[in-house]
Structures are given as C-alpha cells and as structure tokens.
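protein under study:
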Amino acid sequence: MILAPLARRVVRRRPRYVSVVLLISVAGCSANWKPLTLPRSKPLNQRTVVEFHIRDSLVRLHGVRIGSDSLSGIPWLEHLSCDTCRVSFALSGVSEMRTGDPGASAWVLLAPLIALYSVGLILGLAFFASEGGS
C-alpha cells in the first residue's frame, strides 16, 4: 500500500528516466578505439580486436598476428579456436588500423537497462499487488 504512491510517481516521471536511458545508450556506443602503430615490440593479446580498412571495406579481426609485411587474424565474430577461419592481408593495403573492444560497449549499455527494467518490474508488481488487495 505504501509502494502504490511511489509507483505512481515513477510513472509520472518517466520522461526523466527516458533521457537517462538515452544518455547511457550514447555513452555505451564507444569501443574505446585506440590507434595501432607498427612495428610493435610485443604481440597483441588474442582477444584484442583490430579494426582497419582495406580498399573500401572495414575489417575486424581478433587473434591477430603481425608479420613483417602482412597481418593475419580470425574474423571478429568467429571463435578464436577456428584456425581454418584465419585470413591474411598485406600490410601495404591496410589503412587506419586501431584496436578496441566492441563487445565491452554492449555491456555498458545492457547492464543499466537490465537494472532499470528490474526496478520497474518490481515497482509494477508492487503496484498491481496493492491495487488487487484493496
């Protein structure tokens, strides 16, 4: 019964929550891309995603191995254990190389949305339980 007025206040203030969700969505769109310079003194982590342009195509690889004149890696959406999926590119045709973690930005967006949905569900259940019991 005490939660019912609180639930009504939350429903009235929905536009504020919508703007917070939009702000979190925009903040979650970044994969923290950093430029990659060659030559590198140490190898890249297997899970590091390398993004680059070759001709007019955007390529994302992980499990990247950089040689003296080429780089090879596994397409980002394939599992790291898929060695038959490995592709190779000449370094001379590669431009705008950068590293990042596109999957991490999904969690930055998803976790707050799950939390907001859970709070809304609990308040909604409390509201409807109090309305049905009176």
About this structure: The chain has a mean pLDDT of 78. Residues 46 and 125 are 45 Å apart (CA to CA). The first helix runs from residue 3 to 12.
